[in-house]
C-alpha cells in the first residue's frame, strides 16, 4: 500500500509505469532515464521524478533507473508480489468478460468462484468457475479468506450486495455497477464506470472536431 498522503493521481499512474517497465524488461532494457521514459509514456520527466520521489526516488541522479529494480519495486507497491484470490458477484455477460480477461493474464489475480441470484445461471460455469447461489457466498468468502470481490450486478442491487460483502470480511470491491459505492473506511473500492470513459472519449473527439472546423 502506498504511503499515507500520496495523491490518488500519483497512485493512478503506478500501473501504467509498471506496464511500460514490464515491456522494457521484456525487450532487455536494463537502464532508462526519466527523459527516455517520458518520451515513451508522454509524461514529463519532471512528473516522473516527482511521482517516484513520493516513494523514495528509486534512481540515482545522472545514472537513471534500473528497469528490473524499478519494475519490482512498483510491483511491490501495487501488491503484485502477493496472490489475490477473488470472487465474482454477477455472472452475466459483463462478469463473464471480466473473468475471461483477468484469468487470461499472467498476474497474481485469480477468480475462484462466481455467484448469482439467477437460477438459470446457478450450476453453470463462467469459464472454469462454478456459478453458485448468492446464499452460499458468505460462507465461501469466509472459509476461503477472500479479500477481493468484483461486482458486476445492476445498480439497483449494488448497494445491498456491497453490504453483504462487507459483512463477510471482503476488504476490497472492484465495482462495475453504475453507482458509486459508499462503504466503511476500512473497505477499499475501485469504481469502474465504463460509460464515463466512453463519454470522456467522445468529449475529446468533439473538441478535436471543433478545432478542425475552426481552421
Structural class: alpha/beta
Number of domains: 2
Poorly predicted regions are: none
- Number of helices, counting only DSSP H or I runs of 4 residues or more: 8
Strand-and-helix sequence, N→C?
HEHHEHEHEEEHEHEEH
Which term fits the overall shape? Answer: globular
User: What is the name of the CATH class of the largest domain?
Assistant: Alpha Beta
Quaternary structure annotation: single chain
Q: Give the N-to-C terminal Cα separation.
A: 48 Å
How many β-strand stretches?
9
Note down, in words, how this protein is organized.
The chain is α/β, with parallel strands linked by helices. It folds into two domains: 70 residues, Winged helix-like DNA-binding domain superfamily/Winged helix DNA-binding domain (Arc Repressor Mutant, subunit A), CATH 1.10.10.10; 112 residues, NAD(P)-binding Rossmann-like Domain (Rossmann fold, 3-Layer(aba) Sandwich). The chain is 46% helix and 17% strand. It is built from eight helices and nine strands. The protein has a seven-stranded mixed sheet, with helices on both faces. A two-stranded antiparallel sheet has the order 1-2. The chain is globular and about 60 Å long.
Amino acid at each position: 500500500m502506498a504511503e499515507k498522503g500520496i495523491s490518488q493521481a500519483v497512485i493512478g499512474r503506478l500501473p501504467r509505469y509498471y506496464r511500460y517497465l514490464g515491456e522494457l524488461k521484456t525487450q532487455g532494457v536494463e537502464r532508462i532515464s526519466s527523459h527516455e521514459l517520458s518520451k515513451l509514456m508522454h509524461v514529463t520527466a519532471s512528473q516522473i521524478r516527482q511521482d517516484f520521489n513520493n516513494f523514495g526516488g528509486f534512481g540515482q541522479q545522472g545514472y537513471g533507473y534500473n528497469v528490473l529494480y524499478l519494475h519490482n519495486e512498483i510491483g511491490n507497491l501495487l501488491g503484485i508480489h502477493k496472490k489475490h484470490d477473488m470472487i465474482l458477484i454477477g455472472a452475466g455477460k459483463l462478469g463473464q468478460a471480466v473473468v475471461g480477461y483477468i484469468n487470461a493474464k499472467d498476474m497474481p489475480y485469480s477468480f475462484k468462484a462466481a455467484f448469482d441470484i439467477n437460477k438459470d445461471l446457478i450450476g453453470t460455469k463462467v469459464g472454469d468457475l462454478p456459478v453458485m447461489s448468492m446464499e452460499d457466498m458468505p460462507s465461501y468468502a469466509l472459509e476461503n479468506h477472500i479479500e477481493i470481490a468484483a461486482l458486476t450486478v445492476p445498480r439497483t442491487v449494488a448497494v445491498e450486495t456491497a453490504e453483504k460483502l462487507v459483512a463477510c470480511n471482503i476488504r476490497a470491491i472492484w465495482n462495475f455497477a453504475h453507482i458509486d459505492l459508499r462503504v466503511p473506511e476500512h473497505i477499499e473500492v475501485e469504481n469502474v464506470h465504463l460509460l464515463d470513459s466512453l463519454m470522456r472519449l467522445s468529449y475529446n473527439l468533439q473538441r478535436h472536431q471543433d478545432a478542425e472546423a475552426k481552421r
